[in-house]
Amino acid sequence: MITNSDKPNKHLNFNLSLSYMKKRTGVAAKIKGFWRILGPGLVTGAADDDPSGIATYSQTGAQFGYGQLWTALYMLPLMTAVQEACARIGLVTGKGITTIVKERYSSGVLYAVVSLVVIANVINIGADLGAMAAAAQLLVPIPFVVLTLVFTSIILLLEVYTNYKVYSKILKWLAITLLAYPITVFIVQQPWVTVLKATITPHFEFSFAFLFIITGVLGTTISPYMFFWEASQEVEEDKEKHLLTKGKPRISWMSVHRMRLDNTFGMIFSEFATWCIIVVGATVLHNSGVHDVKTAADAAKAIEPLVHSFPHAGFLSKLIFSIGIMGLGMLAIPVLSGSAAYSVAEAFNWKASLNLKLNKAKGFYSIIIAATVVGLLLNFIGINPVKALVYAAVLNGVAAVPLLFLIIKISSDDTIMGEFKSGWLSKTILWATFAAMGAAAIAMFYTIL
Questions:
Q1: What global pTM score does this model have?
Q2: Where is the chain membrane-spanning (predicted)?
């Protein structure tokens, strides 16, 4: 016999269901809210692992095994501090880094800064375009020249004619292509004790080969274009959210906290991807006798274990690699050309914003177009496209050193930053970054003598 107390309580079940739905909705809302916070930091972090980054990290894994794996761990606080300082400069002042350099330093310093950024970025654009074309050739038998022209056209059309709000959302989703490497790390049987030890314990070799690659690893991780891009994008965010009043942003510590959350997540995402690429390069390439990544096909072999149980595993690995390289190239090249354009436009007092139409910012967009086209032309001088990626990373490693000095000075100046100037911890890490990158570049050149 069933009593009333034994009967199902419809009201109780309904309330439990409602409570469960609210809990799920609450979690979904939090995830959605967190995703909305992510912006310049995530895009900058993902753009950091561009084709140049993938090639350089793959090369160190193939050439030195786990010998430089520790860089991924120890670069994380350095990279985070640098990008936080750059983002804070843009957020607090409502100005790009070049504008502040122009206001505070001599014209000689200004033109040196702009030249460093533009030259490094154009070479990087060329290397990335070449890598995209080489990756696409793994899938389709189309001439290299045709593919570089196609990619250049698509990127320019998107960057010049697409609404920035739409384009930035596309950029965030393209970052997902980096997941191929973390998945491969956990599919392949790893010597985890060795991997973890190599992650924590620094290893040095005083040779040109070792220092050349480590300068490239530092340069492709802590790159000049990232400094200028993130600062400029924080200014764009200020404008988008109508935070600028008479050219000065209305900033609170809550705004700075959100920026730091965005920046930290982006840098962790970037360095985790870096760690995974080096591990995969060491485990799959180095341990199988591939010690030099010369072609896109060599690099694609690193993710073959991801699909080894599928039919046509070789083709599938090339497909995944190609999609990743093309997606990340689409992500990185607009950042490279955009940061060059912001730098030049600010130096000459041109209107500079991706939110403006072409006819409202002709000078700004002309630099974007010129930087991309010159980068395209660099592919026709006969340099191996994969090797060009590593050379571009090394150039960034050298160019970043004097620019870091300026960023430290600007972010620590209370007449510029006010209450938001760098604290002792930020300054300590920034100076450590400057010293590490300077020492790597000097040591590399010393080994040539």
A1: 0.84
A2: 109-127, 133-158, 170-188, 208-229, 264-285, 319-342, 363-383, 389-408, 429-448
Q: Would residue 105 be called left, alpha or beta, if left means φ above 0 and alpha means ψ between -120 and 50 degrees? A: beta
Query: How far is 236 from 38, CA to CA, in rounded Å?
Result: 14
Distance (Å, whole) CA 33 – CA 56: 35
By DSSP bridging, strand 244-245 and strand 248-249 are antiparallel
- The mean pLDDT value for 7-19 works out to 46
Residue 26 has pLDDT above 90, yes or no: no
Distance from the first to the final alpha carbon of the chain: 97
For the stretch 277-331, pLDDT in tens is 999 999 989 988 889 988 888 888 887 776 676 677 778 888 888 888 888 888 8
What is the pLDDT of the chain when averaged over all its residues? 84
DSSP string, 287-339: GGT-----SHHHHHGGGGGGGTTSTTHHHHHHHHHHHHHHHHHHHHHHHHHHH
39-448 maps to which CATH number?
1.20.1740.10
The amino acid occupying position 235 is V
Could you tell me if 230 and 262 are in contact, meaning their C-beta atoms sit under 8 angstroms apart?
no
For residues 349 and 347, give the distance between their C-alpha atoms in angstroms, rounded to a whole number.
Answer: 6
Print burial letters for 142-165: b (CB count within 10 Å at least 16), e (below 16). eeeeebbeebbeebbebbbeeebe
**Closest to 228 in 3D by CA, of 403, 16, 429:** 403
User: Can you say whether residue 201 is alpha, beta or left, with left for phi > 0 and alpha for psi between -120 and 50 degrees?
Assistant: beta
Q: Is residue 178 within 8 Å of 268, Cβ to Cβ?
A: no
Rg (CA), the chain: 23
